[in-house]
Amino acid sequence: MQRLLHQDGFTLLEVLIALVILAIAFSTVYLSLSAATYHLVSLQDKTAAEWVGLNVMAKAQAGLIPPEASGTEKMFQTNWQWHLSFSPSADPYVLHTMVTVNKEGRAQRTIQLEGYLSNRL
Questions:
Q1: Which residues lie below 8 Å from residue 26, measured CB to CB, with a gap of 6+?
Q2: Do the beta carbons of residue 71 and residue 104 sit within 8 Å?
Q3: CA distance 92 to 94
Q4: Residue 68 · residue 84 · CB < 8 Å
Q5: Exposed/middle/buried for 54, CB within 10 Å: 0-12, 13-18, 19+?
Q6: If you placed Cys at 14, which of 5, 10, 88, 94 could pair as Cys (CB 3.0 to 4.6 Å)?
Q7: Residue 70: per-residue pLDDT
């Protein structure tokens, strides 16, 4: 029997190293895509919550919402709970206004808006 001195192909060790490198690369791509998806959903939630808060602030400015009011509004097929509160400011003709918005059923607030409205006394 005659032995071949020239081999074609890869050794088992070379194939295993290549597979390990591919596994690391694919897991890195997967982790970055899942993080991007999470941040996209989080950004969408914050945008919707901010719009709800701005709507509540505009209604309060128009006098359509009483002080210390709470309610629910639907935005992006999601129900959002909001709470409006007023507190006095340094100027007696101006009220400090705070709107907190969170997803319905979630205790953690998504966004908090602060502003000032004229005191209609």
A1: none
A2: no
A3: 6
A4: yes
A5: middle
A6: 10
A7: 92
Check residue 55 and report its DSSP letter. H
| Residue 10 identity | F
Per the structure block, which two tokens stand in for 8? 């074609």
In the chain, the amino acid numbered 111 is I
Domains parsed from the chain with CATH numbers: 12-118 (3.30.1300.30)
Q: Are 80 and 49 in contact (CB under 8 A)?
A: yes
pLDDT in tens, 62-73: 889 887 899 999
Residue 10: strand pairing partners: none
**Is pLDDT at 84 greater than 80 in this prediction?**
yes
Pairing status of strand 70-75 against strand 78-88: antiparallel
